[in-house]
From TrEMBL:
This is Carbohydrate sulfotransferase. The keyword Nucleotide-binding does not apply. It is a single-pass type II membrane protein. Belongs to the sulfotransferase 2 family. It is found in: Golgi apparatus membrane. InterPro entries: Carb_sulfotrans_8-10, Sulfotransferase. Keywords: Carbohydrate metabolism, Glycoprotein, Golgi apparatus, Membrane, Signal-anchor, Transferase, Transmembrane, Transmembrane helix. Its EC number is 2.8.2.-. The keyword Phosphoprotein does not apply. It comes from Willisornis vidua.
Amino acid sequence: MNSSVLNLPTLKSEDRNNNKWQSLYQIQGERKRIMRETCSKYKSNNRRIITPYHVSRIFVEDKYRVLYCEVPKAGCSNWKRVLMVLNGLASSTRDIQHNTVHYGNYLKRLDGFDHKGIYHRLNTYTKMLFIREPFEKLVSAFRDKFEHPNNYYHPVFGKAIISRYRVNATKEALRTGSGVKFKEFIQYLLDVHRPVGMDIHWDHVNRLCSPCLIDYDFVGKFESMEEDANFFLHLIGAPQNLTFPKFKDRHSNEERTTTKITQQYFAQLSPSQRQQSYDFYYMDYLMFNYSKPFEDLY
């Protein structure tokens, strides 16, 4: 039982005459169709049992009956703020600090419930995820974790990456793990014998949210965030004064990662590294209908 009995809330009768809502509703149908078709073509896990591991990234909002699968670098901080407001934990998204969002443990996760609680919510709540163009998401994660001081990613990932992939690394670089280059980061990502494990910030959406196992009702895209997010809030009957926040959560004075910025980073790689990176995220590209980011990819 991995699909919801409710599925996506249907449009209210007064919304059916609204071309904008009607069009957004059709877009949802199309996104879900492509996702399901990709799953049935490439995946054979239709009969697999959903375990707590599969739902460990899903946040629960019981008041409006929402399940949100967190995909880092695709608006997740602001989505958590919205869930906290829906839950009555804050009156406005503006009032919630970054650390409260990520380290406050105010939101429940689905794997914290027993088997019955997990299945009940999967079958009756509205399940949603928001995704982002895979290369753009990757560059956004790299800029955030490696181009700014970070007391976790530099010592844990940076040191291992520099010592494995940099020829003649300085003692200082090996000691601090700071200054990882994008090319070195990609070498780590594509290495089957990675010196350090995977991380949620650059893992596949496919692995984070198990969309072939869990039948999501709503698939939003970072690229059309405002429209998609406010449509979702409208569908679940959220308070009208609650809209999705537009502010950038961290390094707010820095330009958001765009297609142009992403291409500048990927231009540093060889064609074969670009191809391997595309292959690495191939299922995400296919499942969420993103076009190839470079013309020379096959």
